[in-house]
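for the writeup, i need someone to sanity check this before i put it in the appendix. the sequnce is what the collaborator sent (i think, or maybe the updated version? ugh). structure was predicted straight from it, no edits. if anything looks off just tell me and ill rerun, i have time this weekend
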Amino acid sequence: MKRSFHLFARLKHERGVVFPFTVMCALFMSALFLHAVALYHTEIQFFEEEKKWYEADYLMKQALIYVKQTLASTPENVSSLTQTVSFVHGQATYRATRIEPDVWSVTVSCITNAQFRYDAQFQFNASTNNISVWREVY
């Protein structure tokens, strides 16, 4: 007990310890705050990128529905089709080439209203209404 009292008594006579300690704590708290702000900024950027992909994916799904309906009802004497279709979230351009009597090779390019591009290639079987060999182009 007496020994710890001497330790505090000696610290009592020390001067200039409080201000550097306060500055060090303030700098540490500032660093934590700046780190939190940087994380928030990264999260906002991720959200914006995810929103672009969501809109492009939705546009691609709308375009696929349209392309499947069009190709399923296309006469057999037509060997290729190219068309641009406008939707609410952007526009889609597709190019389809018949490779077998019921099988089409299709390239779809979607551009959202924010000018984000999403391209895909696939094969479409008109008799079974199935998509196969799906490939996204970056």
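The first helix runs from residue 2 to 13. The two ends are 73 Å apart (CA to CA).
thx in advance!!
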